[in-house]
Records
---
Amino acid sequence: MPSSSLPVELVSFDNTYARCLDGFYVSCSPDPATKPALLRWNYSLAEELGLDVRAIEPSRLAAIFSGTELPLGAQPLAQAYAGHQFGGFNPQLGDGRALLLGEVIDRNGRRRDIAFKGSGPTSFSRGGDGKAAVGPVLREFLIGEAMHALGIPTTRALAAVATGERVRRERSLPGAVLTRVAASHIRVGTFQFFAARGDDEKVRKLADYVIERHEPQLLGRSDRYLALLRAVVERQADLLAQWMLVGFIHGVMNTDNMAVSGETIDYGPCAFMEAYSPATVFSSIDVHGRYAYGRQPQIAGWNLTRLAETFLPLIDAESTDRAVAEATAVLEEYPRLYEAAWLSRVRTKLGLATPHADDAALAKDWLTLLDRNEVDFTLAWRRLAGTVAGDSQPLEQLFKSSPDLTPWLERLRRRIEQEGRPIADAATSMRRVNPVYIPRNHLVEVALAAASDDGDLAPFDGLLDAVKQPYDERPGLEHFAAPAAASYTACYKTYCGT
Ligand code: AMP
Ligand code: MG
């Protein structure tokens, strides 16, 4: 903190995690940055949080959001958590390069965490420098904003600040700190940390805290822990359906990267699928395809089972058998909940307003067509709107050759007509849910390389602008809608960037 000035009162912090959950974290200060400079600031999110930054110089904002100067009321802490990483259990992970600053109540009355990523080592960083590089920080900023604009629950970036320091990865890279805003940072792995130590009381305390924070309607119910499990299962089922329907591949769905709030969290080696193929994997470390696009719903179910295991003593303290039976009954609902969420959302993508028994088959046959013809997932959905409105040529161009496409399109048209709605209405509603702009992998890489290597944020800004209004086709932005060459995508790899 500059000695001449008092701490800035940015916002009124109300830090329940620090106050109520002693023993769940370690207090820790961020490293000051040598030469903090604001890379990007999220004005609309700041507004939503009620942050008053008008009177604050950009240089001071950079000092605050690099961890160099703490705002009044912040109580930085590193949260403890464990996690299954690629199926293997690690009993101690924790925030090794992140710090929770505190919580604020936003303008909509929702409690939000404000946290740093890349602000230096903590007592949980066993190895690693606790830092982050400009590229991965901007990737998280960009993908989080894209997901938010697509209507998908996600943590979001408030700020990206360059530290002026170099971080050592495979090569030396410019460092940065991300400020992340989340409904909370409680993960499946947070429960696992205490369950693995046999500390049932802490598991209970955490579950009570989560109920109060995320599911207050369950307070006082005798079956509240089972109901909490069900609520988390429901949120994840819907989240996964949303990921699948935009072609999002998280890349590292470890249990420490799954938030109980139902928000998408931890954008590392994530990517968007181009040509539809359930086996798509981009992450360099996912050698066996555990987290392939098509396996994500199933993996979420696996992670939820790990969560349920930690809940057993809370569900029934007397009888493990009874607890297992009750938890199993909830977990068994997950595939059905996922299918229901997926079907209801896929219907809107198909321009349908009412359910019909054949809809799942109609949707699945469409995906089979995309798979067989290696068609770009995003463009195919988008052009389907034009097709139902009468112009099928742009869609047909995406198909290598498809004798089955025409009869399938006929089926869809008949189905839409059955609803008695004007076809133009269906096309309009399809354009509202089928994005034209997603963060295309090749464009993300160009934007991050320009920012990291040359300090040029123009490509990043252009792409961010496109993906922030994903449904509005705008002249001049055609290249943001175009897939990469298939040869590029075939070799594309993403990295953790840690
Ligand atoms: P992630 O791959 O970001 O989900 O992180 C997995 C675990 O590794 C977490 O406990 C992180 O805090 C830790 N970690 C990741 N990167 C670093 C780093 N650069 N320094 C210290 N710990 C890290
Ligand atoms: Mg993580």
Note: The first helix runs from residue 16 to 20.
---
Amino acid sequence: MWNDIIKLIYYVNLKGAVLLNKKRLYLIIIVFVLIIASGLIYKNIRDKIEVVPYTMFLKYLEYGIVEEVKLSDSAKILVKLNNGKKILTDNPRTIDFKKEILMHDVNVVEEGIEAKQIFMFVALTIGLIGLVVYFRKNMSKQAEIEIASISNVESAEYDTRIKFRDVAGNEEAKDALKEMVDFIKNPEIYNSFGARLPRGVLLYGPPGTGKTLLAKAMAGEAGVPIFPVSGSDFVQVYAGLGASRIRNLFKMAKEAGKSVIFIDEIDSLGKKRKGNNISGSEEGDRTLNALLAEMSGFKENEGIIVVAATNRIDVLDDALLRPGRFDRQIEVQLPDVKAREKILKLHCRNKPLARDVNLKKLAVETVYFSGAKLENLLNESAMIAVREKEKEITNEHINKAYYKVLVGDEKKDRSCLKYKDREITAYHEAGHALIAKLVSKENRVTKVSIIPSTKGMGGFSLNIPPDRMYQTKGEILSNISVALGGRAAEELVYGKDNITTGASSDLAKATEMVLSLIGIYGMDDYAGLLNHNVAMAREISGSIDLLNRGKDILGSIYKDTLDILEENREILDNMAKLLLEKEVLDEDEINALVEF
Ligand code: ADP
Ligand code: ZN
């Protein structure tokens, strides 16, 4: 209702059909004051009537001096006695209260919606509208913009010019989205096979990596309209507006038929819900619930796909990630050196470049730049060239732009990360990857990278051998060794005093594994077959020192890990060097290094 009232007022004001001048405003305020006054008077009159305890009222009933009882919902009920006196007593609100008084031959009047109440309601509504109008007049520009946007956030864009070829790099994300294009185009086919189509895709990764672009390209390829909104649009000052906007959005998408709904910054409405809420986030919860309801609500195989984007998957409410919601999660990463070159090329298509500009070299120099930043760099270069009245964009222009682009965000991101830091990361990640390859022939390392992601610095992807139901002790031990490989490489190359904090989550993983090995799986000779959780549950502890035993095992595995790396120092150096150069290595490149 709020939504409608505000919309109506905005509309009325906009069209100028009913101009709310000062006179009318005063009238509204007077009406409002009158309502409050009459309410007070009414309350006063009621206060004058004597209130008797309920037990007393029951006695009156017994004595037969009650003539009439006015039933209502309120806390007190009005009772008329034989002598004409009126009293108030507590409303017991029991189901057979009416029956009981009827048995005593008492008149029962049920208080329906009386004229007075109708009047109160109407007057109150008018008063409220008056208030809204009044505040509207005094509202800041920001709020005015907000209201103005109410009626037009949910509008579709229909731009089939943006295609996947406009997105450089991000190959994995593109492949996953290409599949979705087919779902949108041919839902009938999937339907006839009884397949349930995915409804939501979540794109996550650092800002400016092309998530919005990917969603638009997906709609463009499928040839359907896209409804782009931002999660923060739904966080409103007016209660309930966010939820109703969500419903409105889905309604419009359904009317459009096959389409893509794109919700940017989904984290601003889908944060993890907490038990004890402050009122501010309750509104957010309502909006989130509306989104979840809509997503579960729409018919499958309709050809509507909801794409959401976030920089922070870790803060999202779990309910959003469940099947039937955003169950496809695709990571969109910062571009590596090859992808950067492609992005630069793409954005140079319409720009006159001098012949001496080397995009390959520029790609090497723009470590940790996002796609948006690269685009910005070229755009700035073009502006500088225009300002200097040149015919082409030269290296000099690009250099100037480079510093301009970097100055803006100084230490906010890792663009200026020192070479030394990159080298440490390279050795750390190479340590993990190399150990993984060397401790078990079955381990497949599909990727190593030194590009920061939302999860942290660099990373490696280990495909642990074929799904099996059980893990052997040997496998657990070698996984611990892999986890310690990063720290071991740091120590080997830079010495004990120069190890970094970068291994903290590795150590957490290793600790978890070793404690389970000893305390849950009974795989350690010294600790025997005891399950520590059971022992703890019985409050028996102290007999076996789990902590010291774990520390010893980790220590000995760490020593072995160091030895393995030392023996293969040359491969480690080569891998770190190649990582520094390429930033990301794929499986073939890793295998080639290890099996030379
Ligand atoms: P995000 O939604 O991840 O914050 P955007 O999609 O809004 O990023 O990217 C902003 C702009 O940066 C895009 O419009 C595009 O010009 C450029 N851009 C980002 N990533 C790429 C990419 N992979 N290929 C081409 N252009 C890109
Ligand atoms: Zn690590």
Note: The pocket of zinc ion (ligand 2) is lined by residues 428, 432, 486, 503, 506 (CB under 6 Å).
